[in-house]
Amino acid sequence: MIVTGFALWLASAEDSNAELLRTGGTGSTVETLRRLGVAFTKIEPGTRIEVVAGLGSSGGIAAVAAGAIDFSISGRPLGAADDQALKASVIARTPFGLASSHPNPGDVRSVDVADLFGSATAVWADGKPVRPVLRPKSDSDSLLLVRLFPKLAASLEKLRQRAEVPVAATDQDNATVAEQLAGSLTGMTLAQLQTENRQLHWVSVDGVMPTLQNLENGAYPHGKDIYLVVSSRATPALDRFRAFLGSSEGQKVLRENGSLPVQP
Predict the structure, then answer these.
(1) pTM for this prediction
(2) CA 91 to CA 73: how far, in whole Å?
(3) Which of 1, 28, 176, 208 makes the best surface tag, with the fewest CB within 10 Å?
(4) What is the pLDDT of residues 224-243, one digit of tens each?
């Protein structure tokens, strides 16, 4: 017990002396960030990554601007309303697809996605009803869905008028509601579905599944860019982490967790 207690005390002391990098942002990358942090600390044992959950892209960007965190991971680029002193760069790209709790949702043509979401009588191949899950109108995934699929904007607007259609505030809420709702339909990233082991199934689009291989070879065109957002207050530890993202080990972690690495 004495040896064990000393080992715990020593680990705690070493941890308290570690240089801390605080981060957060889009919920779909929270688990990936944690895994990147673990891998980075193995290489840089004097530096620790702390992931603040629940910020979202906009909250993470605002936290970097306020100096509350050292960097954020965003699912959208910087906009006119964001602090223009910040800088954002794409570090990864992950497939963005349609997921369902239905065990065999099948395939949908991209031109029919709007009808699948918007029609109150839409059904899966076995005749069970399609039950969409929405995100807030300003959420990056809502904006991405509209950009990726033609005529979807009008369908989503109609859906927002239906009181029975759930609106999930966060990426984690979205996945949980979709898991629990029979016949659900929602948009999400491969990175989230894979790292969180969600009990959801992909809808193939135009006969193609949203896999990392299909995104990389161009067979699946629908991806979501992941941005690293930093301020002018860069530290040596942050510089080392950015270098880690571009290293073979960092890129390996990204790939293993559903994202194609892009040199920061």
Answers:
(1) 0.89
(2) 9
(3) 1
(4) 999 999 999 889 999 999 99
DSSP letter, residue 82: S
The tokens describing 22, both together, are 């605080």
Residue with tokens 């930093």: 230
Amino acid at 255: R
d(CA 70, CA 229): 9
DSSP-based three-state secondary structure for 252 = helix
pLDDT digit string (tens) for 57-114? 999 999 999 999 999 999 999 999 999 999 999 999 999 999 999 999 999 999 999 9
**DSSP per-residue string spanning 198-228:** -S-EEEEETTB---HHHHHTTSS--EEEEEE
Considering Cα of 241, then 254, then 221, then 122, what sign does the dihedral take?
negative
Element (H, E) at 19: strand 19-25
Q: For residues 228 and 244, is the Cβ–Cβ distance under 8 A?
A: no
**Which residue in the block uniquely carries the two structure tokens 């570090």?**
91
Q: How many helices (H) and strands (E) does the chain have?
A: 11, 10
Q: Beta partners for 223? A: 95
Query: From CA 160, how far away is CA 118, in angstroms rounded?
Result: 10
Cα–Cα distance measured from residue 200 to residue 60, given in angstroms and rounded to the nearest whole number: 27
Q: Count Cβ atoms within 10 A of the Cβ of residue 104 and give its class: 0-12 exposed, 13-18 middle, 19 or more buried.
A: exposed
Specify the residue for token string 């207050």.
233
b (16+ CB within 10 A) / e for 194-214? bbbebebbbbbbeebbbbbeb
